[in-house]
Amino acid sequence: MNRKQRILVVDDETSMREFLDVFLSKQGYAVTDAKNGKQAVKMIQKNSYDLILSDIRLGDITGLEVLKEAKKKNSETIVIMISAYSTTEIAVEAMNEGAYDFVPKPFDNNELKQTIAKAIELKTLDQEKEKTTSELRDNIHFNRIIGKSPGMQAIYKRIEQISSTKTNVLITGESGTGKELIARAIHENSDRKDQPFIVVNCGGIPDTLIESEFFGHVKGSFTGAVSDKQGLFEAANTGTIFLDEIGELSPILQVKLLRAVQETSFKPVGGTNEIEVDIRIISATNKKLEQEVIEGNFREDLFFRLNVIPIKVPPLRDRKGDVELLAKHFAEKYSTQMQKDIVKLSSYAIDFLNKYSFPGNVRELENLIERSVALSSTNIILPESLTISMHKKRRWIEGVKGHRFDLDDVEQGVDLDVVLSTIEQAYLKKAMALAGGNKSKAADYLGLSLRSMRYRLDKAE
Predict the structure, then answer these.
(1) How far is it, in rounded angstroms, from Cα 290 to Cα 304?
(2) How far is CA 379 from CA 70, 101, 152, 202, 341, in A?
């Protein structure tokens, strides 16, 4: 029979020690507790523990000193720091000293449970890095697409079904969802994989030039045409052409494209000879083309020619479970590029990401992680490292009714505790009003546990 994992709880609050003792014992751990730092150090020197859960403020010595002693005794001991008075500086110092994670009070019981279970399973940061790499490898599809959500699984299946055909495909989805990656995956898993894959941004070419870009032109056909030019459709012959932002095409170009799609041939601008091509057309748009057809902005016959096989890419907010995978992938990618050793994202950083809606989808997540890696001063990405763009932060802060906090005021000096307390109280008051005074329902509105809600309300009184 496997032995129980041994956990040492270090906290100077009797009620917190008692709660954690009962809570962790119910999870099957062998729990011991220490009421202050010096007692914890003596216990660490005499005994071995699989995991230590220590508060930062202990009354005599700090939790950081307990952490250092634990790592001195056994570098593989997992230490998770908890505190109601967390700062970025303390969190960074704790991580630099070898803490596995930093959990602010009041914590969500289920999140703490998962953090501890995961920490014990992985044992060390090096093992976590190896597992992360393995997890990413298992969830990279077609050498480029990351995700395991049901919506993405359906897309993988569709790619496998259609890659061997020549049928036209229309990929729809919000900006930043990775439509081009899917188009490339279709091409690279087809018989045309060794042939050209030509990308055309239909929204990025002026109307006066797009016909020439598509179909080429002959010398002298217009001012500036000093020589014959091959068009992108001809360059894609025997391969695939990817028409991104297809919904941006003007009505005149839609007519010319329709003929090329129907006949698989075209005439260069100013030319008389027909050029036949063997190409597969994959189109993409962030517009609702059906609605554009109804409103008369997009030709119905062209829509049906392009939309033979539709693929709809879900927004990141609907891809439950993929945010963490993608964030880890981008952290690994950019830490390698910047020659940093970012080992992991903290559990609370992951929680922050999962609660954010990502209007910019995967592209926004990638930019966010790239900035965070660049600005991170430790080997773990903390919630404070996740630098949401300033205009979004300003909108969040100004969104509290009755209060306006300007980030530019920092230069003149602000009392951050007052700012954060005012914002928190405003949200608590609003949630309680919406819930008719029901604390449990108000907690649901704010994404808090009932215990955390009670703690915050008591603190606000």
Answers:
(1) 10
(2) 19, 11, 30, 42, 6
- Other CB atoms within 10 A of residue 330 CB: 21
Residue range(s) of every CATH 3.40.50.2300 domain in the chain: 6-123
The sign of the torsion formed by the CA atoms of 289, 295, 299, 305 equals positive
* Domain at 6-123, CATH class: alpha beta
Q: Using omega within 30 degrees of 0 as the cis cutoff, is the peptide bond preceding 315 cis?
A: no
For the CA atoms of the chain, what is the radius of gyration? 29
Bridge-partner residues for 350, per DSSP? none
Instruction: Identify the CATH number of the domain defined by range 150-313.
Output: 3.40.50.300
* Sequential pLDDT tens for the chain (461 residues): 357 889 999 998 899 999 999 999 998 899 999 999 999 999 999 998 989 999 988 888 888 999 999 988 888 889 998 887 666 677 777 877 888 888 887 788 888 888 898 888 766 555 566 666 666 676 788 878 999 999 999 999 999 999 999 999 999 999 999 999 999 999 999 999 999 999 999 988 888 889 999 999 998 888 888 899 999 999 999 999 999 999 999 999 999 999 999 999 999 999 889 999 999 999 999 999 999 999 999 999 999 999 999 999 999 999 988 999 999 899 988 988 998 877 678 877 888 888 888 889 999 999 999 988 888 777 778 776 776 544 444 444 444 444 555 555 566 566 676 677 778 888 888 888 888 888 888 888 888 888 778 878 876 66
Contact 307, 170 (CB under 8 A): yes
Q: What is the DSSP letter of 340?
A: -
- Strand 30-34 with 6-10, pairing: parallel
Residues of the chain with CATH 3.40.50.300: 150-313
| Architecture label for domain 393-461 | Orthogonal Bundle (1.10)
Distance in angstroms (rounded) separating the CA atoms of residues 297 and 178: 25
Q: How far is CA 98 from CA 105, 217, 316, 336, 380, in A?
A: 20, 64, 33, 21, 10
Segments of the chain assigned to CATH 1.10.10.60: 393-461
Dist. CA 157–CA 161, nearest whole Å: 6
Report helix, strand and coil shares of the chain as percent, to nearest 5.
Answer: 50, 15, 35
Q: Assign 10 to helix, strand or coil.
A: strand
In degrees, to the nearest 5, what angle opens at C-alpha 377 toward C-alphas 371 and 379?
95
